[in-house]
Every structure is written in structure tokens, then in C-alpha cells.
Design goal:
Blueprint: E1 4-6, H1 18-24, E2 36-39, E3 42-45, E4 53-55, H2 63-71, E5 76-78, E6 82-86, H3 89-99, E7 104-107, H4 110-122, E8 128-132, H5 135-138, H6 142-147, E9 152-156, H7 163-169, E10 179-185, H8 191-198, E11 202-213, H9 219-227, E12 230-233, H10 236-245, E13 254-257, H11 260-268, E14 274-277, E15 286-294, E16 297-305, E17 312-318
Parallel strand pairs: 4-5, 4-12, 7-8, 7-10, 8-9, 10-11, 12-13, 13-14
Antiparallel strand pairs: 1-14, 2-3, 6-11, 15-16, 16-17
């Protein structure tokens, strides 16, 4: 079963004014009722519940997490913090896939996987063997593998979903000069190529895309996000944007990170209440609760490990100790 790490328990949150509560009542995700509307960079729907979780991935990529949270009665607010942009190396990726053969293609994020698949299809779907950092990244290839089994082989994932462990464990399969193509974000660390090169691999890294802050964040929606108990982040880039947005205030609520790499970045940026799954590559449906009792409040951070899907983060704040939850397996 997946375990959950944290540096400190989440803080208590205080009630806001009735006026603010009324304003918030129509700006969050809940598909139990209400028409969907668009405000600036955020899509929201009406509900009488206050948002417990802020989801921050690029627009259009928060749906699975939002739906998983809603199915368990957890309201969320979508506030995209980053956007992806293609770089010139993307054209080179298509050419290399058409003209050369590599022993491994290494993919270390869902976005890198999507960018690679587009280039791979443009190159005519050549036969490739892919290594991925974890189950969330592997899920990007599910549909392509089903339709092109003879051409696309997702053949490796490390025992721990980090770039350093991948670089340590990637097999050479008896090839002294094992070649690796590594299409990645321009902001990705050098752990992969340095680790593999140190083991004798020949690594070609292509920076096929990069991340940048969104052009605009609606100030009213930002105010709502700042009051939510949890902000869920899936990359260090999103964390840096959130750090900039909160630099001038005393924001100290919980940060739920997709994995150890993002959690480490959160710690370096000065966040204190950081939670992340220590086994983000785990497959299967499970729920881990870490209850923390403080006075008459029961705090729980829940992480739902979904089969080959990005992890879902939730924060539940219960008013009375007498409230008990059935900690059975949650199927998402």
C-alpha cells in the first residue's frame, strides 16, 4: 500500500465572513448541480460547498482529478498556474524518430509523453521501446499501445518514480553502447542524462517543450484559492508560480504534491505543510489517511492512488472527533 509523507500537519483554517462565503458559493467545482461558467483562466461550476482543494494543472488537464474528488464529495476550484509551449527541438524529435533508431526512449512526465506521441505519429509510428518514470506517465501510452502493439513497447519503469532511480536502474540489455533518446521539458533537471551517461549510455536530450506561468490569474478566484485548505500541484513549475503569488502574504496551508520531486521543490521554496505519496508508481486502488487530532478538529489528508492515473489529492476537515470514516479501499 502507498505510504504518505509529510513535513508537518496542515494548519487549522478559520471561517470567513458571511459575505465572502456567499460570493464563494458559486465559484467552485461540484457536478451535483449548477451550470458551468468561465471566469478568466478558470472554469468553475456552482455549488453551496466551499472548495477544499485547488487544482493547478494546465487548462483542460485537471478533469480526472476534479471528477475523482467530486465522486467522493470533495469540492474543488480549478486555477491553472502554468501553460506549455513547444520548442524548436520538437521538429528535431520527429526527424530523429524517422531517421534513427534508439535502444530506449525515456519519458518522465505525462506532458512529455503527449508531446512525444504527437512526434512519433508524425514520424510514421516507427518501432520504439519506451521507459517511463512511473504509472502516471505510463498511462499516457495506454491507447497508443492498444492500437500499435507491434510498434510501441512500454518496457520499463523504475522501482521508485524519480529520475535518479530511473537512471540507476535502466537496463542495458547486454548492449555496451546503449543509446537513449530523452525528449523532455527545458526545465527538467539533468538527473537523467547525467546518471545514464555515468553508466555508459549515449544520451540525446531534446528540449521539446517548456512551461511558463499563465498570462493572467483572476484576482477574485485567487482570493478563493488562498483560503482553500489544500493546493494540489503536479510540477515544480506550478509551485514556483504559486510561491510568487503568495510571496507577500502569510499563506501556510497544505501543499499536496504529485511525488517526491515536486515535494522537494516545495520544501526548497519554503512551504512547510507538504504531503506526497512515497510510492507514486504504485498501481491499484487504495486510499491512505493520516489523521491528526488537534483539539476538537480531525484533519486528514487523503491520497487516492488510481490505477495508471495521476494521483488525486484531497483534504478533509471534520468538525468533531466523533465523526468516523470507513477506511476501506476507495475505487476511483
Amino acid at each position: 500500500m502507498t505510504s504518505l509523507s509529510s513535513f508537518s500537519p496542515p494548519p487549522l483554517t478559520t471561517s470567513s465572513s458571511s459575505t465572502t462565503q456567499q460570493r464563494r458559493s458559486c465559484v467552485r467545482h461540484s457536478f451535483r448541480g449548477g451550470a458551468c461558467v468561465s471566469l478568466s483562466s478558470v472554469t468553475v461550476s456552482c455549488s453551496t460547498k466551499e472548495p477544499k482543494v485547488v487544482v493547478t494543472r494546465e487548462r483542460g488537464k485537471n478533469g480526472k482529478l476534479i471528477n475523482a474528488l467530486v465522486r467522493h464529495g470533495i469540492d474543488s476550484l480549478e486555477l491553472p498556474l502554468i501553460q506549455h509551449m513547444h520548442l524548436p527541438d520538437l521538429d528535431r524529435l520527429t526527424s530523429l524518430l524517422s531517421e534513427a533508431t534508439f535502444d530506449w526512449i525515456i519519458i518522465t512526465s505525462p506532458e512529455a509523453g503527449k508531446v512525444f506521441l504527437d512526434a512519433w505519429k508524425a514520424a510514421g509510428t516507427p518501432s520504439v521501446r519506451v521507459g517511463v518514470v512511473g504509472a502516471g506517465t505510463a498511462s499516457i501510452f495506454d491507447e497508443a499501445v492498444q492500437s500499435s502493439k507491434q510498434y510501441l513497447d512500454v518496457a520499463f519503469a523504475p522501482s521508485k518514480a524519480t529520475g535518479k532511480v530511473l537512471a540507476l536502474e535502466l537496463p542495458k540489455n547486454g548492449n555496451d553502447k546503449c543509446t537513449v533518446l530523452y525528449p523532455a521539458s527545458a526545465k527538467a533537471s539533468t538527473d537523467i542524462e547525467e546518471g545514464l551517461s555515468g553508466r555508459g549510455f549515449e544520451v540525446t536530450r531534446l528540449n521539446t517543450y517548456t512551461t511558463a506561468p499563465v498570462n493572467h490569474v483572476d484576482q477574485y478566484l485567487l482570493e478563493l484559492a488562498l483560503s482553500a485548505p489544500v493546493v494540489a500541484v503536479a510540477s515544480p513549475s506550478a509551485l514556483r508560480v504559486w510561491a510568487n503569488l503568495t510571496a507577500s502574504i502569510q499563506w501556510d496551508n497544505a501543499v499536496a504534491c504529485i511525488g517526491e520531486t515536486t515535494a522537494s521543490a516545495a520544501k526548497k521554496l519554503g512551504f512547510r505543510n507538504i504531503y506526497y505519496p512515497t510510492s507514486p508508481g504504485l498501481e491499484g486502488n487504495s486510499c491512505i489517511f493520516t489523521p491528526r487530532l488537534r483539539g476538537l478538529w480531525f484533519h486528514s489528508i487523503g491520497i487516492f492512488a488510481m490505477t495508471k492515473l495521476i494521483k488525486s489529492f484531497s483534504y478533509l476537515q471534520l468538525q468533531h472527533c466523533e465523526v468516523f470514516w470507513d477506511l476501506c479501499v476507495i475505487s476511483v
